[in-house]
Amino acid sequence: MKLDLENQDSKETLKPPKKKKRLDTANNHPHPSRDPSSMLIDEETSAQENPSTGPSVVDVQRSITPTLPTTQGTLPSFPLPALPDAPSKTELALQGLDKALIDAEIVSSSTVIPVPLSSGSEQEHGHGGTMLSAKMRKRLRDLGIVELFAVQTKLLPFLLNEEDDKLRRLYLPFDPPRDVCVSAPTGSGKTLAYVIPIIEVLSQRVVTRLRALIVLPTRDLVAQVRETIEVLSKGTNLKVGTATGQHSFSQEQAQLVQDQSSSLQGGSSRVDILICTPGRLMDHIVGTPNFSLQHLRFLVIDEADRLLAQSFQDWLARVLAATRAPTTSGLAFEGALDPWDFDTVVPDGLSPTFLQAARPEMTPSFFLEQSVSSCQKLLFSATLTRDPGKISALDLRNPKYFVVQGSDSKEVFVSDGQTSSVALMDVVMEKFSMPATLSEHMVVTDTSQKPLIFFHLVNTLKVTNALVFTKSAESTTRLVRLFEFFEDELCRASTSLDRTRLVVKAYSSDLPGAERKLILDQFKKQEIHILVCSDLISRGIDISHVSHVVSYDVPVDMRKYVHRVGRTARAGKVGDAWTLVEEQEARYFKQMLRDADHLDKVKRSRISEKDLTPLVMHYEMALTKLKDLYSRHV
Ligand SMILES: Nc1ncnc2c1ncn2[C@@H]1O[C@H](COP(=O)(O)OP(=O)(O)OP(=O)(O)O)[C@@H](O)[C@H]1O
């Protein structure tokens, strides 16, 4: 059995140019599946053709142009006015671009700094440019982290500046810190790039207050980041809490707030760091007495593009408002907290900014300046948006952008006297970087053969640690059943004693939280070999041993593709990503890759009928069993 890994797309570029077709999104979307694993349910679905949209603009113009009488020989002919060339996509993208993005610092992914061994003294300059305390360096080395990854080499010095130790202060009301936006490939170590500085700055606190808020899109990611923080903050006395809705609201309230009975303007937090999903965060802002964001020193928005796309209860505007000092009529947004009665304000426990707003007479007279929130916003994503509308909603303060390149391209792009690196242009054009250690492949298949092709790949490539993405929870369940029947058949027929039966499980939003956690833990321990899931865990989840990612159903857009394939090839390890593309989806999928300048990175493989022959009988038996199973349930 062999896979033809030759890149077929390079051949396509040699063909004569085809007549340009206008892209019609409706027509280019993948057609509904006719995958046999879904035949019992999807049988009725049929592809819809778009109705004709009538005559083209050119046709209409032609039809209304009057026929003039011939005046040949009497009038001189003048050149017709010509339209200027339309600006290119690149020129358009550069227009009105945020200055902060133009000034972005581009970081090569190969930049690393060693984490020097601790010499014992906290004050010595033995940090080797990492700006880390001796305690943190020791902790990192104990955990096997001996060098900082590219994104960390820039972020740590920026957030923990050595020359000016002001950045290690908890409050900076008159000289607030700059906000930060980071675009770096999947698996490049963005989590530690914010977790380490938070622990370094907060570990010197005396009183527990809510000083760091980390917002993530899913419960699974909240649990993952909590684990990282707990491991790294061991021995610091920092308290970490989560709010995801997994526990009852009152349970969460009791975990987050010390005293809910009296009205404490300074808040009453049990935790220094809160990791949460936006929905549950809103519930606490609105409904938990003495839950206050006035002491926030850090607000992290991880997977920022995904979270900024969620307008749930206008969560971002409300969070930002809750970090700002109240006006005389209460906090700057509706329905958050009761308005302040300024006569009863007690200075104890208020942040400097809230204190100045409430009791100006208590602020030293030489501080004429208005104090502002000390909260520093840190945004992270492998697919950071450049959408000005979304970015402006964040009200960023003198933001600094860091862009980590996926590869070491040093090329420079010049436009209208403006010089930008290729990496910066990639962010501007939303062309996302991939890990350098990732190999990408696609197989175009007839729909009816897709499951067989998938089983063939698993067997030929001897896959034992894979994440497989489908389009829905329902397709996940069906594929897992078919795979199990197929494994039964294969094991029964196998004469070889060393053939291990592959354990495959579904992971979907249909499962209760506790079961999802159990399945993820089993997969991490490699007790499950193949985890089939929907896009629920396509973002952020870090499982280091994933050697293969298979998109059994094509991803709907490039962002989804980037996050799915990024579950492998993490932290410098190699990994393979395969996408199974049904014939009618191929044009759309390839166009998606082409638009992202990524088509030539994905090798096209062909699998011949001959290669599939040894599996056909087992596959057909499995398919029959699946049909029986579903007909019993109808
Ligand atoms: N300096 C380092 N040395 C060794 N391993 C590291 C280092 N920094 C991070 N890692 C490991 O790299 C893996 C990927 O890191 P992380 O999950 O932060 O990636 P990410 O950039 O957030 O990816 P994604 O965009 O997919 O969320 C983790 O297992 C993490 O522990």
From TrEMBL:
Q: One GO molecular function term? A: hydrolase activity
Q: Which UniProt keywords apply?
A: ATP-binding, Helicase, Hydrolase, Nucleotide-binding, RNA-binding
Question: Which EC number(s) does UniProt give?
Answer: 3.6.4.13
- Residue intervals of the Helicase C-terminal domain: 456-613
Q: Please name the InterPro entries in this protein's record.
A: DEAD/DEAH_box_helicase_dom, Helicase_ATP-bd, Helicase_C-like, P-loop_NTPase, RNA-helicase_DEAD-box_CS
Q: Which reaction does it catalyse?
A: ATP + H2O = ADP + phosphate + H(+)
SMART domains assigned? DEXDc, HELICc
Similarity-based family: Belongs to the DEAD box helicase family.
**This protein is called what?**
ATP-dependent RNA helicase
Question: What is the taxonomic lineage of the source species?
Answer: Eukaryota, Fungi, Dikarya, Basidiomycota, Agaricomycotina
